[in-house]
Design brief:
430 residues, five-stranded parallel β-sheet, Dna Ligase, domain 1, D-amino Acid Aminotransferase, Chain A, domain 1, Rossmann fold, 4 domains, 23 strands, 28% strand, alpha+beta
């Protein structure tokens, strides 16, 4: 089969790496890909916005692509799966209607409220309702803070602000509505109660009728150690989660995941692809933070190296509504992923900085390097985005996996590189 991967990040490099191991693959392609993906797939520098859907389709026809795997959320929310299916092309991912589960936080919050799925209490305001929003904020009691404000639409993982005071919440409203920091994504917002606890990520494969959960992972949203600084797309992850008991895992499935799947069915939404729940645990009870309609980044990079199944076959089965009798097999290894970001991230990103040292990493099958924001320029590897590289190691213990990752990172150099030094530290110490 000829397989096409849409996307250019660390998640897509990990997917390309895992898919390339499938016996079903004859040729692997990527749009637009990156410098790392280009080592295992033929990359074509085509944009993936809605304006480029026709170009993607022509590429599929020209290269006789049998199956397309869509990595990022934006083309899913924009309806790329619908467009390809309408043109008799098979693809992995939810259609436009189903992708609203990520494309609109208001949609998802209202779905949870309607079907009694545990989540934080919330109110909604449109840009035209700024006065009402300000009045609501001014009536809040100081002792009830912090509150969380979220952009309704896609904001690359950065459209969430935890406001510790009325002043911070009013500033956030101004950022969303007046400064238009997140553009159209911030034209409607959610203000919700803050739930303190620890977060887990649960990714599930769905074929329309059957839902199969993957093993849990945890990611790190803040830029600096000890969860300091601004929100990012994710600075690292690890899997599995030894501190989540089997009974808590079942609670997550029975109180949140399965009820959501049933709610989507009740709403007439045929969901196929990955459903990724961001869950927060408070006093051993799970609450939904948000849903994503695709593989998590960087959770995928710590989950897929542990999966023994043929990921491509699983994806094809999802698209064809054929997951019945599927049993997932997992390695007992512990996996740690550390993200290396560019200078200025997450507020900005530096491009064109020369990256050295990757050739000096002693891989030995234990350390994987997934490229994210990289490209080749004048025969040199340079930075090309906020999150630049993902260094991933699998080992029998978290301590060994962490040592492998951070030892490898010592070899890597580029101007202004930044990474967290505490990824998976808490599980190493358990």
């Amino acid at each position: 089969m000829n397989i096409l991967i849409i996307g250019s990040g660390g998640r897509e490099h990990c997917l390309a790496w895992k898919i390339s191991q499938s016996k079903l693959v004859d040729n692997l392609f990527a749009i637009p890909g990156n410098a790392g993906i280009s080592q295992i797939a033929k990359c074509e520098d085509i944009g993936i916005s809605k304006n480029n859907f026709k170009d993607i389709l022509q590429f599929i026809y020209k290269n006789k692509i049998d199956f397309t795997v869509i990595g990022p959320e934006a083309p899913l929310v924009d309806g790329l799966v619908d467009y390809l299916n309408e043109n008799n092309c098979s693809a992995f991912g939810p259609n436009k209607t189903a992708a609203k589960i990520e494309g609109s936080k208001v949609f998802t919050k209202k779905l949870c409220m309607k079907y009694n799925i545990p989540t934080a209490n919330a109110v909604f305001f449109k840009k035209s309702e700024l006065k009402d929003a300000l009045k609501f904020v001014n009536n809040l009691k100081d002792e009830k803070f912090p509150y969380v404000i979220k952009a309704d639409g896609l904001a690359a993982g950065k459209g969430v602000i935890i406001a510790k005071s009325k002043e911070e919440l009013i500033n956030a409203l101004n950022e969303f509505f007046l400064e238009e920091k997140f553009g159209a994504a911030g034209e409607e917002v959610i203000i919700e109660d803050f739930i303190s606890g620890f977060e887990v990520s649960l990714l599930c494969l769905i074929d329309g009728n059957i839902l199969i959960p993957l093993e849990l992972a945890q990611d790190y949203k803040k830029i600096f150690d000890n969860d300091k600084g601004g929100n990012t797309g994710g600075m690292g992850s690890f899997s599995p989660l030894p501190f989540v008991s089997s009974s808590l895992y079942q609670k997550i499935l029975n109180k949140i995941i399965f009820p959501t799947f049933n709610a989507l069915k009740s709403e007439g939404i045929n969901y196929k692809g990955v459903l990724y729940g961001g869950i927060i645990i408070k006093d051993d009870e799970p609450f939904l933070l948000e849903y994503n309609c695709r593989f998590g980044d960087p959770e995928t990079q710590s989950i897929l190296p542990r999966l023994k199944n043929d990921i491509l076959q699983l994806m094809i089965n999802c698209a064809n509504g054929n997951l019945n009798n599927t049993k997932l097999e997992w390695s007992d290894n512990k996996t740690v992923c550390v993200v290396i970001a560019s200078k200025g991230y997450p507020n900005s990103s530096s491009k064109g900085d020369i990256i050295t040292g990757l050739d000096e990493i002693n891989l030995e099958g234990k350390v994987l390097v997934f490229h994210a924001g990289t490209k080749k320029q004048n025969n040199m590897l340079v930075t090309n985005g906020g999150r630049v590289l993902n260094i991933v190691a699998s080992a029998k213990t978290f301590k060994e996996a962490r040592n492998l990752v951070y030892k490898s990172i010592e070899n890597i150099k580029f101007d202004g590189m930044q990474f967290r030094k505490d990824i998976a530290l808490k599980v190493q110490e358990m």
